[in-house]
Q: What sequence folds into this?
């Protein structure tokens, strides 16, 4: 067992099975043995590769979309340019360079990074100079907020519920007779979804709470947010997964040594934005969104000036068989403002997810 597995097993022996959300929280953020607290997980040398690590184009178009939203809202100043879960700072660095085409925006903007890992904070400071680090989205200042969140929500803790003959029961992490970590069932609980026996649904309360904070800030002060992740809309199924050295593995096998994620359900996130008084978009495929903003022309231009990998990177980012359809995006903006480039308003009631 890993050191963290022994800690988790001791806790279960002492107090009983734990929720999947508690398990994810411990595995990813434990101060001594947690996954994000102890390593750089990004790129070929890590466990996974995100879109910003593939090519600068991704960050450029994220930045340009937010810069256009800033201009459409009358170039407010000062503003917060924020990113939760910013990894090495690659995406923010590419955005910061690209938004310089909008006169005045860099003078107006303060870079604000929401990061829990001391290790990653050091990497971000090395790349970005002196960003303003905060511990929580709730610490964002009260001014217009322009925010990008790429592969942030998928790492937030989820809870899982499975429909049985008795009703919905929560899936819990417990111990086998041999003392190994294993999944089991908790008691019957109320859960507001229809289902048939065997169906599994996932609930990420922390993602909904995060969007509530972001959208409330945007509704009150202006700004825009773009949320990009892999996932769907009101989905069913067990999507809890682990990745180590770019290879999937049992999420209970090596606590603290593997990345843990789950697919994002965009429906409750959009509904949370509407309840907060902001506008939210329909989900769009990442590939379609980037191409609508001119990614193909940008890649060809870069190739012409010597970037030999630009066209291959474009394919990886936009092709439906690569990241293009797996990843989706929604946007949030104030009522009465122009939609964020590449998005259309989602016309549903705030309680209809």
A:
């Amino acid at each position: 067992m890993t050191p963290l597995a022994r800690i988790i097993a001791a806790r279960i022996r002492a107090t009983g099975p734990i929720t999947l959300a508690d398990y994810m929280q411990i595995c990813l953020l434990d101060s001594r043995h947690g996954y994000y607290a102890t390593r750089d997980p990004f790129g070929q040398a890590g466990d996974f590769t995100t879109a910003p690590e593939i090519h600068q184009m991704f960050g450029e178009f994220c930045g340009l979309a937010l810069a256009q939203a800033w201009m459409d809202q009358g170039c407010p100043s000062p503003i917060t340019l924020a990113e939760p879960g910013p990894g090495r700072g690659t995406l923010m660095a590419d955005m910061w360079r690209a938004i310089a085409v909008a006169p005045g925006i860099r003078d107006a903007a303060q870079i604000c990074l929401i990061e829990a890992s001391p290790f990653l904070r050091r990497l971000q400071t090395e790349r970005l100079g002196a960003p303003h680090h905060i511990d929580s989205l709730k610490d964002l200042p009260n001014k217009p907020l322009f925010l990008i969140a790429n592969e942030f929500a998928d790492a937030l803790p989820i809870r899982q519920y499975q429909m049985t003959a008795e009703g919905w029961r929560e899936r819990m992490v417990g111990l086998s007779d041999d003392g190994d970590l294993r999944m089991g069932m908790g008691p019957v609980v109320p859960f507001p979804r229809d289902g048939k026996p065997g169906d599994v649904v996932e609930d990420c309360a922390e993602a909904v709470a995060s969007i509530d904070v972001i959208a409330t800030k945007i509704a009150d002060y202006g700004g825009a947010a773009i949320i990009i992740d892999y996932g769907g809309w009101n989905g069913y199924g067990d999507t809890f997964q682990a990745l180590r050295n770019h290879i999937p593995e049992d999420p209970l096998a090596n606590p603290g040594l593997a990345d843990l994620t789950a697919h994002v359900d965009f429906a409750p996130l959009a509904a949370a934005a509407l309840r907060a008084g902001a506008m939210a978009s329909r989900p769009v495929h990442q590939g379609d969104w980037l191409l609508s903003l001119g990614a193909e022309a940008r890649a060809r231009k870069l190739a012409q000036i010597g970037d030999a990998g630009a066209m291959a990177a474009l394919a990886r980012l936009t092709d439906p068989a690569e990241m293009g359809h797996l990843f989706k995006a929604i946007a949030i903006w104030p009522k009465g403002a122009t939609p964020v480039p590449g998005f259309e308003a989602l016309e549903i009631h705030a309680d209809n997810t």
